[in-house]
Structures are given as C-alpha cells and as structure tokens.
Amino acid sequence: MSPLTLITFLPVVGAAIILALPRHNHKLIQWTALFTALVVLIITASLYPQFDMQKVGINQEATFQFTEKHSWIPAFNINYHVGVDGLSFPMILLTALLSFLCIPASFGIKKGVQGYFALFLLLETGMMGTFIALDFFLFYVFWEIMLLPMYFLIGIWGGPRRIYAAIKFFLYTLIGSVMMLVVMLMLYFNTIDPVTGGHTFNMLHMMDQANQTGIILLHSTRIIMFFGLYIGFAIKIPAFPFHTWLPDAHVEAPTAISVILAGVLLKMGTYGIIRILYPILPETTVSFGWFIALIGMINIIYGAFCAMAQTDLKKLVAYSSISHMGYVMLGMSAFTAAGLQGAVFQMFNHGTITAMLFLLVGVIYDRAHHRQINGFGGLANVMPRYMGITLLAFFAGMGLPGLSGFISEAMVFIGAFQVWKVHTIIAIFGIIITAGYLLWTLQRVFFGETNPKYLDIKDINGRELFTLIPLGIIVIFLGIWPHPVLDLMNSSLSHLANMMSSVTPL
Amino acid sequence: MNQSPINIDLSPMIPELTLVGGLLLLLIVDLLAKRNKGIIAAVGGSILLFVLMIITISAEERVGSYLFGTVIQDGITVFFRLLFCLAGIISLGLMSYRFKDEGEPHLLILSCILGMFLLAGANDIIMLFVAIEMVSIPAYVLAGYGRKDMKSAEASLKYVLYGAVSSGMMLYGFSLLYGISGATNLPEMAAKLGTVSGTSLPHVMGLVLVFAGIGYKIAMVPFHFWCPDVYEGSPTAVTAFFSVAPKAAGFAALLRLMPVYVTLEPTYGVTAVGMITIGSAMTMTLGNLGAIWQDSVKRLLAYSSIAHAGYLLMGFAVLAAYPEGEIHDLATAAVMFYLVVYVFMNLGAFLIVDLVERNFGGEHIKWFRGFGKSSPIPALALAVFLFSLIGLPPLAGFIGKFYLFSALVKGKLFALAIIAIANTVVSLFYYVRLIRDMFLYEAEGNIADQVAAGAKLKTLGGILAIVTLIPTLVLGIFWGQLANWIQLKVW
C-alpha cells in the first residue's frame, strides 16, 4: 500500500474512532484528532527524504512517486490511481502541516466537539485525496467530498451569518464542480486508452494529445472545455468575478476553518488549473494566457483595494488572500519555469502566511470578541508577544525581503514580466497597496493610545504560540533558504514549462 | 392457428401466477386472523415477494416472447421485476407501521406489484394498457386509505380523475396507432409504422397522446398537477411506495414503447427526441423550482420526485436519439441504474419523514428544526439520503447522475446536460434547506419540547434504514458490480 493511501484514509479512520468515543469526553476526542493528524504529518514528512527530486511526473506515469493503481470500476475504466510529483508534493506537505496545526487551534470549540473533529478529519481526507489523485474521476470525487464537511463546519460552528455564508460557499462550489463534471465526461468519451483502446479517466492519458479524438479536437469545443474547467477551478481560487463567496465564508467560519479554507482549499483552484487544464488543453491554455494573466492582475489590485477598505480584520485578511492568489495566477500565466515555480511556491507560502494571519485574527477575537480594526489601538503595550508575531506575519504578507513571501513574489514577477509586461507592471503596484493596508492596520491596532477596555487583555498563550511558531519558522527559513521547497518542484515545473512552450497557440 | 388454448405454455407466467396464488392465500389468512392483521399481511407479502425474486432469478435464462407475442421476457423484464419486488418489500415494511391491524393495504400493494410484473413483460399495447390499469386501480384505493383524513380522500379522488383522463388519452392514442399499423404487438407495430413513408397526422397524434398518458403516470410536466396533492394527502408510507414503484413502472412502459417512438419523422415538427427533451427539461425545471417553496416535507419530496422523473427522461431523450448501438445501451443502463439508486434513496428519505410524522404528528418543515440535535441518527440518515438525491459523491445518487450525464455527453445532447446542471444547483437549495433546518436551526418555541424528545428508529425502522442506507453509501463507491450486472441485462 502506498503511503499516500495511508495519509488519505487515516483521517477517516480517525473520524470513525472519534464518532465511537463517548460524546462528552472532549479531551479524549481532541487528543484523538490531534494524534491522527500528527501521524499523518509524520508519515507525510517522512516521505520528504524519500522523494526523488529529479523525477518529473506531470504527464509521465513512470516518474510519479509513491504510486498506487487498482482497478476500481472496470465498466468505466476508472482506477484508484494515486501518486505525487513536484507539483503535488509541496501541497500535501502543506495540507498535513496545516491540518495538524488547526486541531489545537480548535480546542476552544465547546459545542458539538465530536462532530466538529470528525468533520474536520473528513475534510483532511478530501484535501489529501484531491492532491494525490491521478484519475480524473477520483479527483472529482475527492473534490466534492470536501464540500459536505465544509458546509457543516461553517454552518454549525460559524459566526452570526454562518447559514448564509455556508450555503453561498456550497452553491458557488457546486456550480463550478458540475461544470467540471460535464467537461470531464467529454474528455472521457474522447480519450482513447493506448493500452486497452477503450475510454479512460486517467489524467495522464488525457494529457497525451495523441490519445484525444473526436469533438474535443475542435477548437470551439476546446475553448468551451477550457472555460468549463476554468470556471470550476476559478471559483475555488477564487478569481474575480467569482470571489464573492470568500469574504462571507471567511468572516463566518471558525478560525481553524478559515485557515484550512485559505491555506489549502484556495490552492486547489490553482492546483487544478496547473494539474489538469495546462497539460490536457495546452494550446488552448497558452492562447488564453493573457486572460489568466489579466484575471491575476485584477485579483491582485482589486483584492488589495478591497482589503484596504475593510473595517473587519478578518475580512481584510480574506481580501488579502484574493489579492495574493492573484500572484499565483499571474505567475502561472507566463508558462515559464520561473513563473510556474514562483506560482507554486507562492501557493505554499501563502498557505503558511495566511494561516498565521487567520490564527492571529482568531487570537484577538477570542479575547476581544470583535474584529473591528478601529476598535483596538495601542495593543503593543499590552500584548507585546502578540505584536511581534503579527509583525512577522504582516511583513511576510507584504513580501518583505528575508521572508518567504518575497521570494515567491519576486519569482512570479520575474517570470511574468518576460511575457506579460503591462500586466506585471500594473500588478507590481499591488505590492504598494498591500504594504499600505497592512501597515495602516498595524498602526491602528497596535499603536496610539491603548484602548482602556483592553488594558488587562492577556497576551498570546502557549497553545496559540504552539500553532504559530512552526509557521513563523517556516516563513523565515524559506525566506532565507527556499531550496527545500523549490527543489521539490524544480524538475516537474521545468518539464511542464517545456511542454507548454512547445505547443503552438491557436 | 389451430393451437388450442389448452396447449398454451403458461410457464413464463409462473411469477404472476405465484403472485396471484400467494395473494389469494394471504387474503384468506387475513380473513381468519384475529389481530395484527397488518403485520401478518406485511410479513407474508414480503416473503411472497422474496420468493418471487428467487423465481425471477431462476427463470432468468428463459428469454423469448410468449403467449402469442404479448409477453416478452428479457434482461429488462428480469431487472424491473426484481426492482419492483425490492421496492415492494421496503414499502411493506414501512406500511406495517401505519397499518398494523389492516391487511388490505398490504394486499393492495401486492396487487399493484402484480400489475407491474405484467407491465415489465408487456409486449403488446393491450397487455400494456391492462397492466397499467392493474397498477393504477389499487393505487387509487391506497391513496384514500387514510380514511378519516379529508386530504387523503381528496388525494384519492384527484388520483382517480387524473388517472382516468390519462388512461383515456393513452387508449385513444393506442387506437390511432392500431388504426395505422394494424398491429397490437409492439415490435410489429414499430416495424409497420417504420415502413409507412412520411408521418401522418394520426401517427403523430397517437404517439403524442400515448406520451401524455404515460406522462401522467410518471408525473411529467405539464401532467404533474395531481402529484403533489396526491403525495401530500396519501398516508406517508403509501406515498413512499407511489414515489418509486408506479413511477418505475411508467418508465418501464416507456422503455418498451421507445421503438414505436423512433418511427416518428419530423413531418409535423414533432420528433421523439424533441418531445422527450422538452418534457425532460420542463419536468426537472418545474419540479425543482416548485420544491423550493414547499414547507410540507412530503410536498417537497413530491416535487423532488417530479424533478427526478425529469432526470430520468434525459436518458430517454438519448434513447430516442440513438435507436440502437452502444449509446443506446449506455442510456438504457443509465436509466436502470438510476432507478435502482432512486428506489433506495427516495424510500430512505420517506422512511425518516414517516418517522417524524409518526412521532410528532406532522411533517411540516418546522418539525425538522432541531431534529438533528434531538435525534442525530435518523437526521444523519435523512441528510445522507438528501445529499444523495442532490447527487453528491461519494453517494449513490452521484453515480446515478454520473451515468445519466455520461449518456448525455456520449450522445452529444449538451443543451439538456446544461439544463440538468442548472437544475442540480437549484435542487441544492431545497434539499440543503431541510438539512440546514435539521442541523443548523433550533426547534421553535412551543414545539421545542416535543422535538427535543426526539424520535428513535426501532427494530423494524432500523432494519429498513440499514437496508436503504447501505446501498446509498456503498453504491457510491463500489458500483462496478451493479453496473456490470445491469449491462448484462441490457445486452
């Protein structure tokens, strides 16, 4: 059995155990969840030294690692086919890490503890499965499995407008995924399995243009399929103009769920584009590179301006996520090795940085029970340790040199500038706006007169530090020495860039 | 034609004859029994249906047409008979809660199933019509079985009136078709109609009228008006049966009629594909839109069952577009697979609604608020059934939809696929609304105590929940076996 199968299904086992535990023994439930997530993290981390960074993956079945393949539904030629390459491995690392850290961050939850942790672990299964699936059908199933736990996690444990936010999230994502379903079937019925001659859901066979036949060879069909898949993924990113569910979902979701949402779920949109859209419809994608770059640019600028206008701290972070996912889109739209690496590295970094930001918002919300930026002031005096970590996270978000965000953003700009000069130049202003809103927020929250209400507010505690410090270390370490993550993706993404540059646009 | 009636081989009718014999036996037992009549009838009926399943499977190899070509036995016959038995057994279980001391409703269900057995093998318009009536007439009585309930009486009357109109239309249609073709046997009729060059007006009229008649039976828009009222008025256990079995029977009849429909040429602008596509699109759209506003959960499920009839009709649109070949078989298999899944998830949903109604005395949506907290297990089961009805993986409903979408995409009916996508999203609204009320809302003021007392699935309910829940979950992941089996039945 592949270790990937283990890390995917271990959380479900944990969830089942949790459901069997006595309902009121919160401690036991919490520690079982923590233990499960820890085991998953340890297994995932132990794969790191075994991972061969030279193997490319992407469209070469033989060079995927830790693969496992079983026939699942022979009638439709559906396989349980999993494996990782340089694109997905950083993502499963991120998933395992954030899932683990979010469990202690959820220890404050008092209502329905059993259900919360069971759903949380089910969510982890969905996330892991999505990143490791190499069969489109399997990918789709995992992609949808995430919806249900997320709906309940926001809808039951969320803020005052949780019900509205949960259904909005559900509806948006479902629209995207049903469109994906139809495109998936179009691909299935027009892809020939080179071995058996039948149809296939194997993504790697779909990527081989020689296997594609029938109507999907028509330019018009390919453009429709491109947009079908693009919308499916763009809703998840969320790319302008499909982003409106995100601020609602984030504001209402409990802290840990916001972390998972921003840290992992948003990455699935861009991951899906790179994993599925790029290699399967390469020439159509290259022809619409300008479009992805344009949306990326809009995301950066628009997200940053929206963030600046917010009075709610969590909404500000939510919009900053939209802005930061724009860098990913801009980077990957260049189809160069630098751009793609920058994009995937930015996915990883945004996962860690935004997780810190949401956790920090959670810390202050637990104490003050509100998130109004103007409602604080002078917290530097009463919460010095909190301010230190917040500074680190904000600077990382701004892309300050020496921190991980800087490297990925710089790579994105370097990669994108070669191809999309105007887009990149406009997008660079996003950095200034980002610095603007983050510094302005820092100033309003931490400096000035201390609000008398918060004179005896408690500084950050040990449990909260436990979740934040590992992320902080990663942010600093990767800012100085990014190679541990960059080297993982190097050969895969260079290969993908070669694939993309060798096609002729429409 | 010297064949004397005595020499007729009745062996293909063994399942029907067994059913009749068993039915009569149960009727006598019912007369002799003193108490628990309903339970005796339900247990006896279930055993009978179980025996019928065994007989059906053991006679599977006997493929061919019998009784002067009026009865056909093929894979599809076997499939539908098994499906009807299954739906019957689960429904009888549900019925025995409500009708503990009355044997007749259970026996009426069995007589309904007798009609369905004939329908599954009908290969002749007369046989088809008689079979449809044999399904309908016991159903009219069943709808009115909530004797003291005005709504039930209304439901029964409505059902009879609409049913009579639809039967009349169908019969008129059949007479027109017979007039043109001179044949009552379906393949013969299809062949004769196919040789007539061009399509005459009576031909079109005949097919349209028959389609309308069948449309009533399966609650296709615009012939669906009876459906929400009948479903709401009938006792819940009866509604559960109505929502699956007679509907599946209607689809079985349509499946048999398809070869006749594909003879339609677009002389008058009416084609089989066009007719069914429009019917399908309207049915799912109006069904889903209608469901959004319902506060009665039974009505909600009634509209949802209308919408599901629309989804199933998508498969028929593909069948009409591709009279034979690989795509035809795929679409047939898709329809059959969906019906199996639909039986489990829809009966499961009704099981829990019935539980709520029995415990709280109503099935208004207000009784479901806070239900998730007071009775987590039934509420969770209902949530699973509803998610499956939406078509979310990894549940069986997703695979059913996946199969239908496959047929549509393979048959290149993209417009219908897009309408179905939009509908899936709309359906999320009302199914999730119920789930939301169960888990996310608190019970309301004056009924809070009652809801807080909760409702438990007892032994029988638990067994029925397991019987419906396990396939809903397992067929979402391991559906290869069933898909293979169905494909064997199609070819």
Task: Summarize the model shown.
Chain A is mainly alpha-helical. Chain A is built from 21 helices and two strands. The mean pLDDT of chain A is 90.
List keywords for this structure.
heterodimer, A: 506 residues, two-stranded antiparallel sheet, B: mainly alpha, 2 strands
Structure description:
The complex is a heterodimer of chains A (506) and B (491). With 506 residues, chain A is mainly alpha-helical. Chain A is globular and about 75 Å long. Chain A has a domain at 288-506. Chain A has a two-stranded antiparallel sheet. Chain A starts with a helix and ends in a 5-residue tail after the last helix. The mean pLDDT of chain A is 90. Chain A has 21 helices and 2 strands. Chain B has a domain at 271-491. Chain B has a two-stranded antiparallel ribbon with strand order 1-2. In chain B, a hairpin with a 4-residue loop joins strand 1 (64-66) and strand 2. Classes of the chains: A mainly alpha (506), B mainly alpha (491). Chains A and B meet through helix 5, helix 6 and helix 7 of A and helix 16, helix 17 and helix 20 of B.
Q: What multimeric state do the chains show?
A: heterodimer
| Total count of strands of chain A | 2
The DSSP helix count of chain B reads: 20
Estimated radius of gyration of chain A: 22 Å
How are the SSEs ordered, and which strands pair?
The complex is a heterodimer of chains A (506) and B (491).
Chain A: H1 3-20, H2 26-50, E1 65-73, E2 78-84, H3 88-105, H4 113-132, H5 136-145, H6 147-157, H7 162-189, H8 203-207, H9 219-236, H10 245-252, H11 255-280, H12 282-287, H13 289-309, H14 313-332, H15 337-368, H16 379-382, H17 384-398, H18 404-417, H19 421-446, H20 462-480, H21 483-501
Antiparallel strand pairs in A: 1-2
Helix pairs in contact in A: 1-2, 1-4, 2-3, 2-4, 3-4, 3-11, 3-15, 3-20, 4-5, 4-6, 4-11, 5-7, 6-7, 7-9, 7-10, 9-11, 10-14, 11-14, 11-15, 13-14, 13-19, 14-15, 14-18, 14-19, 15-17, 15-18, 15-20, 15-21, 17-19, 17-20, 18-20
Chain B: H1 14-32, H2 37-58, E1 64-66, E2 71-73, H3 75-98, H4 104-121, H5 125-143, H6 150-181, H7 186-195, H8 201-217, H9 226-233, H10 236-261, H11 272-292, H12 297-321, H13 326-360, H14 371-374, H15 376-390, H16 396-410, H17 414-439, H18 448-453, H19 459-474, H20 480-490
Helix pairs in contact in B: 1-2, 1-4, 2-3, 2-4, 3-4, 3-10, 3-13, 3-20, 4-5, 4-10, 5-6, 5-10, 6-7, 6-8, 6-9, 7-10, 8-10, 9-10, 9-12, 10-12, 10-13, 11-12, 11-17, 12-13, 12-16, 12-17, 13-15, 13-16, 13-19, 13-20, 15-17, 15-19
